[in-house]
Amino acid sequence: MVLIAILTVITAGLGLPGPLIVAHLIDSLFKHHSINLFLVFLALVGIAAGTGLVGYALTFAVTYLGQQFKMEMRRRLYSHMQTLSLGYFEKNQIGKMMSNITNDVATLDQLISGSFVRLMQDSATLIGVLVIVFIKDWKLALVALSVSPFYVANYLLHIGHIKKAADDVREERDVMLGDLQEKLAGAMVVKSYAKERTEVRQFVGQTRNLLDLNVDLSMLGTRLWTIAEFIGSGCGVALIIWYGGREEMMNRLSPGNLVAFISFITGYMYGPILRLIQLNDQFARTNAALNRIFGTLDTEPNIQNKPEAKVMPDIKGHVEYKHVWFEYEPGQPVLKDINLDIKPGMMVAFVGQSGSGKTTMINLLSRHYDVTDGAILVDGYDLRDVTIDSLRKQVGVVIQETILFNTSIRENIRYGKLDATNEEVEEAARAANIAHVIEALPKGYDTLIGESGIKLSGGEKQRIAIARAILSDPRILVLDEATSSLDSETESLIQEALDHLMKGRTSFVVAHRLSTIVASDLIVVMEKGVIREAGSHIELLQQGGIYASLYNQQFKVALESREAEGVKL
Amino acid sequence: MSNFRRLLGYLRPYRYRVFLAVFLMFMVTLTALPLPRIIQFVIDRVLPHHMWHTLNWIFWIIIGIYLFRGIVSFSLNYLIGWLGQRVVFDLRFHSYRHLNRLSLSYYDQRQTGKIMARAVDDINVIQYMITGGFVTLITDMLTLVLVIPVIFLMNVKLALIAMAVVPIYVFNYKLFLKKIRPLSVEIRKSWDALIGTLQEKISGITVVKAFVRENFETEQFIKTIRLNYDLQMTQATLNRILAATATIIRAVGTGLVYWIGAKLVGVHTLKVGELVAFTGYIGYLYDPALRLVDFNVQAQWAGASMDRVFEVLDTRPEITDAPNAKSMSNLKGSVTFRHVSFGYSRDNQALIDINLDVQPGEVIAIVGPSGAGKTTLVNLIARFYDATEGAILIDGVDIRQIRLESVRRQIGYVSQESLLFSVSLAENIRYGRNDATREQIIQAAKNADLHDFIMTLPDGYDTKIGEEGIKLSVGQKQRMAIARATLTNPRILILDDATSALDSKTEANVQAALEKLMKGRTNFVIAHRLATIMNADRIVVMDKGRIVDIGTHAELVAREGVYQNLYNEQFKSAQDEALAELLG
Ligand SMILES: Nc1ncnc2c1ncn2[C@@H]1O[C@H](COP(=O)(O)OP(=O)(O)OP(=O)(O)O)[C@@H](O)[C@H]1O
Ligand SMILES: Nc1ncnc2c1ncn2[C@@H]1O[C@H](COP(=O)(O)OP(=O)(O)OP(=O)(O)O)[C@@H](O)[C@H]1O
Ligand SMILES: [Mg+2]
Questions:
Q1: A251 by DSSP, 3-state: which?
Q2: Listing from the earlier edge strand, what are the strands of the sheet with B411-414?
Q3: ipTM
Q4: pLDDT digits (tens, 9 = 90+) for B427-471
Q5: Which fold does the domain B2-314 belong to in CATH?
Q6: What is the whole-number distance in angstroms between the Cα of residue B385 and the centre of ligand 1?
Q7: How far apart are CA B373 and CA B350, in angstroms?
Q8: Which residues sit with their C-beta closer than 6 Å to ligand 2?
Q9: Which of A295, A355, B88, B552 makes an SS bond possible with B127, Cβ 3.0 to 4.6 Å?
């Protein structure tokens, strides 16, 4: 920063002698004094070379600063976003979050690397020029300055409008980006409904708004600058030539100085003033970007480590839900007074109506949200008293909607354990019963998924996600409908591997296909956020409640056909 | 270069405005010329001869010139701003329209973020070049054309001296051009990667968090931005060197003119004012040359961006309407697969010799192990892909001979992954049919067993999803997708694992409603839970891309094979129990 300041002052300073030398040259020519022309040449070239070199160093330093700044800002934003809780991501459109990291930061950079430096350079030049001009001829200087109030007035008249227009542009662009992202990611839906034309029409509507706003903005800017140029270059120069000319004729000013004056005033005074004004305009435009950047940075994660949070020791697997209440939106409880005591090593199944809160139970266990009331304890530790990382590292969740990344299959599985060896990866794939599919691919584990690669079927994706979780070797394994897209045969093969793997560890399974969970130690039946029944398969069947009716529904045919066969027997 | 020509094509519809703009540029340039001459006149004539009156006149002349210049340049900038934005608009519109035409396979192969980068950032870069670079370039060209004769008329000797340094400059410039170009391409690529990662990792945040990979992801991200940073710095360095050299070359030129010019003044072949004016003019000569550097950067950037935008525009959609395709607005709904084979890539056959004849009104279930090709089969009916071999006929007409839109409009497709948009629940359901009434929307929600849930929400059907709204459970999303599909009143209904996240009770409710709906339509239902599909008219059993069996449930369980195995596996426990009950 200091370096940049020094360099700017030097560049500004180097600009000043040029006109003075020329003035000297011209006056000598007028008075027919002899002058060492070679020296003049050398001086001019020398100054230019100096300006060139220092300017080079300066722009380099500035670009460096700007780029560093951009990088640092993006890193901060991104790493901050990473710490934010899931709730944040659910409430913000992906496209807008992206725009925050890309566009807003770029806007800021323009201010920093462009305008800040100009601010310093111009202030330095301005001060230098004012001093020189006033020393040389204070009256002429005053004349030159007389147009500046108009300048400022012009600026003040425009700036409010420009700021507003810039904000409008931003907003509209964000709307466009948000929609664009969503509709591109949802191309499948757009196509299934043959809605391409509607989408294009809607997009055109948005871009047209953007077009209008942008044209308005650029019109305002142009008006400001054109008027400023007229006032500065036009009226200013005319005044100086007129007044300076009179002065010269009254022999109060040398012609050389007149020329120097003109070039000082046009090149070194109005220019900087103009740009200083422009800087303000830039500030105004950047304001919105700044607000958003700080808005993001100031968002506190809903879920945070307590200062005295302990590291969760190796989990044995005793999980207790104690009077747990939870609501996503205030006043709309999703879980109501949940009580559960799960002993280490148990396999617990959640069943129940869609929307009854099963996924929520699990989200709470990995502490993506904090309970509204009550507490969840693991091995006697309240989840809020341990560090988030140490907890989540030991809880392996296969989430309901499978998400894989655009890299190779191997990298995707390895995501569960970054330092896993190839053997471990393949082992996990075998356990998830996907190894044979992968090995049949020409590139095997190095096959890319998505971009310039292949797309997997729903069940294949689920199995990769399971492999990924298996590899992470969690102390508590959670499968949230992790096998819903698998046929029963494949599923039971995976189940076997999992049983083996999870021996002695606690596991949670959410499933609607009851054959998946009949073997669980504890089946929890949920309805509208409360636990209605809990017990083993046999117990629940005997109770003849919700579970039994679900069971009968699903197994009706099998039971009937068995009975029929039984009769035959 | 051909890309630039193509970009100019985008200006063609506005050619009159472009001509006007060029004319205005000419005027603006012209208004810049008199000033040095006026100063010369003042110094050489007015001042020595004390022409007071003329001086007053000159004051007003200058004001007049600048007033004129202001008006012209305002119109010019306005026009240019408009043109630039307009071209952006056209380009965006074309790209987006084209993106919508491209088949699903295009999206399979690309990260969403990268596609976005093209539709947004690249086009912005092009805009900067049009409003910034192009204009300066043309103005500068005009200036050169006007100024060179002027200086030669003023003084041939000085003019030659001033021009002498230009070749050095051009040489210097050419030297750099070679290096800058590939860099720009690299920078665009690294930007792509940045956007791609961002989009992917932000939408996959649940996985990142589940595996506590926040730090890892941040590190990965830093790598991408660092690459971008390094490249930008390299480019900046190159540009700065170029600019610095240009400044020096320019100073040498100006210095030489003063030197020689002063000598000429000494021998009275040149007046002082002329020298001053002359140096004023050579500013006009060198400045454009300096600006060429800036333009060059912009042009390189824009060049790289244009390549990418035009690449999108040049990608041919794989699925298009045949020239003589007919529009079939009232399908009966019979679907025939005739020796259909299909592979996503050459060495990977997803479907092999599929033959199937489905009558209107039938309910066809498709079962089979994961990866058997079930989704692929229904994708072909909706013509997301075209069969590699064989043909699919709808109502006896090859699907490739029917207008794409008319087929898809009559297909209700609920895909395996339910995707909703960030709008209200009602709007999501209405997506397939804009003119649906409130009653119809509510009916669709009732069919999907969602109505009761929606009514518990404070905002009911106007509840927004996602941003500023709620998040639905996966089962609720699936039901939304079903509601959306049924609302369109399709002739062919495809449910790809569409009830996998529903409990049996909810599923039964949905199914009861669907059964009524399915009457008179052709239905394809994929499911793993056999209870879901047992009542289908026919069950198609698939394995490894082939149809291995077709029959009713009763027929299939009786036969040894894939279906029986699936059945036994799923109902093992029930059978065990029934057996246990029987025995004990
Ligand atoms: N876009 C694609 N590009 C390349 N290969 C694909 C693509 N989509 C699917 N495949 C492959 O084609 C095969 C059949 O996939 P498909 O989605 O039809 O299976 P499925 O029977 O629906 O399976 P599931 O029950 O798991 O959804 C799979 O091996 C899959 O990996
Ligand atoms: N992030 C969220 N913000 C607001 N409401 C939510 C959020 N996530 C879930 N809900 C609501 O909470 C309720 C319970 O959702 P949850 O995902 O736990 O259901 P579930 O039992 O897992 O259902 P499914 O079987 O359909 O997946 C639903 O009504 C849902 O709309
Ligand atoms: Mg769920």
A1: coil
A2: B411-414, B492-496, B522-526, B363-367, B538-543, B546-551
A3: 0.76
A4: 889 887 888 899 999 999 988 888 988 988 888 898 888 766 777
A5: ABC transporter transmembrane region fold (1.20.1560)
A6: 13
A7: 6
A8: A 90, 328-329, 334, 354-360, 400; B 470-476, 501
A9: B88
